[in-house]
Amino acid sequence: VEPLKRLGMILDWFDRTIIDGVVRGVGQLADWGASGSTWIEKYIVYAGLNVIGYGNHLAAREGRKMQSGMVHHYAAIIVAGLFLLALVVQLVVQM
Predict the structure, then answer these.
(1) Residue range 21-79, pLDDT digits in tens
(2) Does 79 map to a domain?
(3) Is residue 95 within 8 Å of 84, Cβ to Cβ?
């Protein structure tokens, strides 16, 4: 019986020390990965989205200035847009 008790104690030590240590280490790595992922999402992804949103806000503010209600202003904007579209198509075709 004593040899089996000794084997049980050795296996218990191995489980508590080695296996639990590996499990705790993996858990710690998962915590670090989650913290890094959260930081990237908060300070890089959301910051980029906020910059894009603010840029859209500024562009809309400038776009509202062009709304004069006069047809010839709108016609000039359409002609300029068609010119730019033709220019882009020409550049794409030349490539």
Answers:
(1) 999 999 999 999 999 999 999 999 999 999 999 999 999 999 888 788 889 988 999 99
(2) no
(3) no
* Euclidean distance between CA atoms 32 and 59, whole angstroms: 39
User: What is the 3-state composition of the chain as percent helix, strand, coil, each rounded to the nearest 5?
Assistant: 95, 0, 5
Residue 92 lies in a domain: no
**Within-domain flag for 29:** yes
Residue type present at position 59: A
What would the two tokens of residue 84 be? 């730019």
CA 82 to chain centre: 35
Is 0.70 topped by the overall pTM?
no
**Structural domains of the chain, count:** 1
Q: Which domain holds residue 51?
A: 2-68
